[in-house]
Amino acid sequence: MASHNLAYVKIDDLEIIGYSVAGEETVVAMPQLDVCFDIGKAPDQVISINNVLLTHGHMDHAAGIAYYLSHRNFNNQTPGTVAAPANLIEPIKEILASWEMVDGSPIPANLIGVSAGDEIQIKPNLFARVFPTKHSRGSVGFTVIEKRKKLKKEYNSLTGPQIVELKRQNIQIDVPVEIPIVTYLGDTQYVDFSQLDYIKNSKILIAECTFYEIEHNERAEAGRHMYIREFAELVETMQNEHIVVTHTTQRTSLQVIKETLKNALSEEKFSKTILFMEKRKR
Ligand SMILES: [Zn+2]
Ligand SMILES: [Zn+2]
User: Fold this and answer.
1) What phi, psi does 188 have (nearest 5°)?
2) Terminal C-alpha separation, the chain
3) Max Cα-Cα span within the chain
4) pLDDT (tens digit, 9 = 90+) per residue, 199-257?
5) For residue range 70-113, what is the model confidence (pLDDT) as tens digits?
């Protein structure tokens, strides 16, 4: 039996599995990309994913780090990579060192401190770009970007041998292109993320929207989270094909959340929206 009953979404050939309830646990994995955004309490189903991209240090997003790393060692897997805000790397090392003493076994880890603007390589053509969010000190979000080369327009009609000949002459025949596949905002207050093209044009946007009721507006402000009206304002400026809503409060039922989303968003945006926690097997 797996430790968690996770939500499951499939968009074309990409699966999104995880769990995300504000204050309780947030972990959102994309196995085909080999990334797990935040780690929550390290559900069994995500242990074999090689890269954890941690957005900030709040316990409900980060508690499972030691278990994730230690369990990979137990399973004879390679050490997990955890990319986390640079200011968290030292305290994470201390936690791991303490757990090594408590548990009596080594916890191999590949820890990478990141800040806004950094890029880390996930696979030969796949990178995670780091951008700032407004939540806690050093908090960040991630966009997973595929980088490809595309033949320049003027060479489109060339035959194979002609292309080989141009390459032999060291002529630059292709241009680099970036395809932003998914952006994960993590926890954040409203920021106009549409100012960053790679976020605006990500095929999939995974965004928090924590609060839905007018009396929760102040909670959103205090906890540095998004309230439905801010979320609606944000997504209307974006171009994403799919929007996955995470980090929903326990204070409002999923049914009311769904209705509130429907009323707050345009029909077009609502049709692209997936309420993550609604996608669990019952
Ligand atoms: Zn959170
Ligand atoms: Zn948080």
Assistant:
1) -165, 150
2) 15
3) 68
4) 999 999 999 999 998 888 888 888 899 999 999 999 999 999 999 999 999 999 999 99
5) 999 999 999 999 999 999 999 999 999 999 999 999 999 999 99
pLDDT > 90 fraction of the chain, expressed in percent and rounded = 91
Calculate Rg over the CA atoms of the chain.
20
CA of 81 to the centre of ligand 2 (A): 21
CA dihedral angle for residue 240, residue 174, residue 131, residue 80, rounded to 10 degrees? 100
Neighbouring residues of 215: CB distance < 8 A, sequence distance ≥ 6: none
CA 220 to chain centre: 21
Handedness of CA 129, 133, 135, 137 (dihedral sign): positive
Q: pLDDT at residue 282 above 80?
A: no
* 140 Cα: distance to centroid of ligand 2 (angstroms): 11
> Ligand 2 being an ion, which residues bring their Cβ within 5 A of it?
58, 187
| Distance in Å, CA 176 to ligand 1 centroid | 36
218: helix, coil or strand? helix
Neighbours of 270 (CB within 10 A): 16
Q: Is 170 helix (H, G, I), strand (E, B) or coil?
A: coil
